[in-house]
Specification:
Blueprint lengths: L8 E4 L4 E3 L5 E3 L2 E3 L5 E6 L2 E2 L6 E3 L5 E3 L14 E9 L2 E4 L3 E5 L1 E7 L4 E4 L4 E4 L1 E5 L3 E6 L2 E2 L7 E4 L3 E4 L8 E8 L4 E3 L3 E6 L7 E7 L4 E4 L4 E3 L2 E5 L3 E6 L10 E4 L3 E4 L8 E8 L6 E18 L4 E4 L4 E4 L1 E5 L3 E6 L2 E2 L6 E4 L4 E4 L8 E9 L2 E12 L9 E7 L5 E6 L10 E8 L8 E6 L4 E4 L7 E10 L2 E2 L6 E4 L10 E7 L2 E6 L10 E8 L6 E7 L4 E4 L7 E10 L2 E2 L3 E6 L1 H9 L5 H34 L1 H16 L11 H6 L4 H10 L5 H7 L16 H5 L4 H5 L8 E3 L23 E3 L2
Parallel strand pairs: 2-11, 13-22, 24-31, 32-40
Antiparallel strand pairs: 1-4, 3-8, 5-6, 5-9, 7-8, 9-10, 9-11, 12-15, 14-19, 16-17, 16-20, 18-19, 20-21, 20-22, 23-26, 25-29, 27-30, 28-29, 30-31, 31-34, 33-38, 35-36, 35-39, 37-38, 39-40, 41-42, 42-45, 43-44, 43-46, 46-47, 46-48, 49-50, 50-53, 51-52, 51-54, 54-55, 54-56, 57-58
Length: 754
């Protein structure tokens, strides 16, 4: 490890500056580190030779006696300057300092005459360019404007605003621009304040809105916004993205100009100026963008390191800025060229040096640069080399064993072999970058290593290092050898029967097949020894139809992949077409058109059947719900027939009595069974009789006993007054006509009460 004082580094670097014509200029450069240190200067990348006009001082600074923007020979002292420092360990280069000549142009904009009514707003503007930026002051009637007057606002860019105009504001105005290069005066302009303050309403209007600005951090931004109207509008500011503007470093100049001091990158955005009519939502807006740039600065500096020969050195350099800086690496002051063992990653933030040797010992610099500025940082790589280390291993040979295996052998070093504790074999695909290298450790008594799990038909590079407790030897010579080619793997084969004479062989493409040129397909009858084929198929083919087969025998199908190294192992499948033939006999081919028509007819029939079934279910539910009321209505119909002459009682069956509600128990049974009477059964049980006299005294209504049958009366009899009673078991009298009475039935007939 080396102390800070031993590192070659800059204490003071040259900075950007603006030089005055014909005046001297000094650029400072101070370095620390182990002496002797040599300092030199460059301008625009070209070495500066001491001359009468420019020479280096004893402290390393550069002195320009008479700075000139343009010399007689056409050259200029303007440009980018840097200093270089070198000692025994390396060379470093400072940041670039941009030197410009102080200038001032003529006025681009002069103030203009203005006539404004009392109470209004007046605005004068001067615009001039120069280096450094000119300071602009205003004069009224040849006297400096009183900046203590709150109605007078002077903006840094050369704008004068006067609000709430009065008669005494009238006068002659001009501006004065000053910088280190010159002093200039603008033309004069007259301001006339006319009339008295008007009370006529005027909509708010923005006379001048904010300009688009691009500034650097820590500078000050002034966003102008001047509005008129009657009543005088209220000016407010906001950001277009909705973020708060904040309060720190924020100030309002005059009646509505926004000033932001000590700018940061977070201040970048689009700012909106709004002029609002007091007490209403009437408003006018204008907007302008503010871009804040930040010069490059380091978040992480590269660190000096010491590494043994043959190892890897890594430097990390992380910078930030706005816009994001570009990173460049130098080696001893020269642009670093990448190679197989020098790599840049992560947008040049990481420098990796693989297999370092003594030639890599140097000072490495990271330069970060953007449009706002540049910076640099350096670090030194020290390559450690111990005396007495083994010499490189000798006679490295590599022999191919198979498509995935190579055997590497070597001989022990010629010098300093006593302290060897082992060897390290470095392995890499010849086409891969150095960082893809990997290692395998080998004991000190072993002089060969079988390297496995390699890829077929691939070139590999090998070298050996001998290790001791104090470090490693230099690398041996590199040997390159290729693995053998490999035949493709077995493909996946599937057989599909198309018809009684055709099968389809299909297979899946897979990276597991490896490199292959195509496929070979064979097939034969199993009882034969001779194959048909090979059928050669391209590598992108995945299916093949085998036709004109015999349906009565079993076939063997074989598929293999091949390449320039030979044929791979085959996949075999057996297939029989007999089952297909039998299925065809049992299930003859269909008439597709006829089946389609039948399907349509069947579908129509199914739909109609579903509708009929649903209708039947609905009717059944209705019959169950209104079954009881239906039976009472049937009894009323029976009553109508009983009120007319009926057949003799002896001809009535027991069934008829039961149907007329002979007993409550039977009626309940009937309800539970859900049986319904149809009209044919009623006609059979109660046939109409031609006799007009009443034959039955046990079954009658109260109305029929006292008067002839009145159909209207019966039809209006309420159902809830209808009741059924049992008939007394007394023997029935004989008929007046002499006919004998019917024998009593086990279930007595009902009698109806009115």
């Amino acid at each position: 490890d080396f102390g800070r004082s031993s590192e070659l580094a800059f204490v003071v670097e040259p900075s950007d500056d603006i030089a005055v014509q014909e005046q001297p200029l000094i650029l400072y450069c101070q370095v620390e580190g182990i002496q002797p240190i040599t300092i030199t200067w460059r301008k625009n990348g070209v070495m500066i030779v001491d001359s009468e006009n420019a020479f280096m001082l004893a402290n390393g600074s550069l002195y320009v006696s008479r700075f000139q923007r343009v010399r007689g020979d056409g050259s200029s002292d303007e440009g980018e300057y840097d200093c270089m420092a070198q000692n025994h360990y390396g060379l470093v280069v400072s940041r670039k300092a941009k030197i410009q000549a102080a200038t001032m142009s003529d006025f681009d904009i002069h103030p203009q005459n203005a006539v404004v009514e009392e109470g209004g707003v007046a605005r004068f503007q001067c615009q001039i360019h120069g280096l450094p930026e000119p300071v602009i002051l205003w004069h009224k009637n040849s006297m400096p404007v009183n900046t203590d007057n709150e109605r007078y606002t002077l903006l840094p860019k050369g704008v004068l605003q006067i609000t709430g105009l009065r008669a005494e504001d009238s006068g002659i105005f001009h501006c004065v621009a000053t910088n280190i290069a010159n002093v200039k005066f603008s033309r004069e302009a007259r301001l006339t304040v006319s009339g008295s303050h008007s009370s006529v309403y005027k909509d708010p209007m923005i006379l001048v809105g904010p300009e688009n600005l691009t500034l650097t951090v820590h500078q000050t931004a002034v966003l102008e916004c001047i509005a008129t109207g009657n009543p005088r509008p209220i000016v407010s500011w906001s950001r277009l993205d909705g973020r708060p503007i904040g309060v720190e470093g924020i100030q309002v100049l005059g009646t509505g100009n926004l000033m932001i001091s000590d700018l940061t990158v977070q201040h970048s955005g689009i700012y909106v100026c709004a002029a609002n009519k007091p007490g209403t939502r009437v408003r006018r807006t204008a907007q302008g963008s503010l871009v804040v740039q930040a010069p490059a600065e380091f978040v992480q500096h590269p660190q000096s390191i010491s590494r043994p020969v043959g190892t890897t050195a890594i430097f990390t350099c992380v910078a930030q800025g706005e816009p994001p800086p570009q990173i460049t690496w130098l080696r001893n002051g020269q642009i670093l060229e990448t190679s197989d063992h020098i790599k840049l990653k992560n947008n040049n933030s990481t420098l990796s040096i693989y297999g370092i040797n003594q030639a890599d010992e140097a000072i490495y610099q990271c330069l970060a640069e953007n449009s706002a500025g540049s910076t640099q940082a350096s670090a030194r790589l020290t390559v450690l080399w111990a005396d007495g280390l083994p010499s490189p291993p000798q006679g490295v040979r590599a022999e191919t064993v198979s498509a995935t295996t190579i055997q590497v052998s070597w001989e022990k070093p010629l010098q300093n072999t006593k302290e060897i504790i082992g060897y390290v074999l470095h392995i890499r695909k010849a086409a891969d970058p150095v960082e893809m290298e990997y290692q395998e450790a080998v004991s000190k008594s072993t002089f060969q290593q079988l390297v496995t799990d390699l890829e077929p038909s691939t070139s590999y590079s090998f070298y050996i290092k001998a290790y001791t407790s104090r470090g490693a030897s230099k690398a041996s010579e590199v040997t390159v050898v290729s693995t053998l080619g490999e035949v493709p793997a077995m493909p996946s084969l599937f057989i599909k029967v198309i018809n009684s004479t055709t099968v389809q062989a299909t297979w899946e493409p897979s990276i597991k097949l490896g490199q292959h040129e195509g496929f070979k397909l064979y097939y034969r009858k199993v009882h034969l020894s001779q194959y048909t084929g090979p059928v050669l198929l391209a590598s992108n083919v995945t299916a093949y139809n085998i036709t004109h087969l015999d349906a009565s025998v079993v076939y063997e199908v074989k598929l293999l992949a091949y390449n320039q190294h030979g044929d791979g192992n085959s996949t075999v499948r057996f297939v029989s077409l007999r089952e297909t033939v039998e299925r065809t006999v049992l299930n003859p081919p269909c008439d597709c058109m006829k089946d389609e028509q039948n399907n349509k007819t069947s579908t129509t029939g199914i739909i109609i059947g579903i509708h009929i079934g649903v209708t039947c279910i609905i009717f059944c539910i209705l019959f169950l719900m209104f079954g009881y009321r239906g039976r009472l209505l049937m009894c009323k119909n029976v009553q109508e027939q009983l009120s007319t002459p009926q057949i003799p009682r002896s001809q009535r069956s027991a069934t008829g009595l039961v149907l007329n509600g002979a007993s409550r128990r039977d009626r309940d049974d009937r309800d539970l069974n859900g049986k319904q009477l149809d009209m044919n059964e009623l006609e059979r049980l109660f046939p109409a009789s031609p006799s007009q006299e009443q034959q039955e005294k046990g079954i009658t209504s109260a109305h029929s006993l006292s008067a002839p049958h009145d159909e209207t009366q019966i039809s209006t009899l309420p159902l809830d007054e209808f009741s059924i009673i049992e008939e007394q078991p007394d023997p029935l009298p004989k008929s007046p006509h002499g006919s004998s009475a019917a024998a009593p039935a086990p279930d007595h007939g009902p009698a109806n009460e009115g």
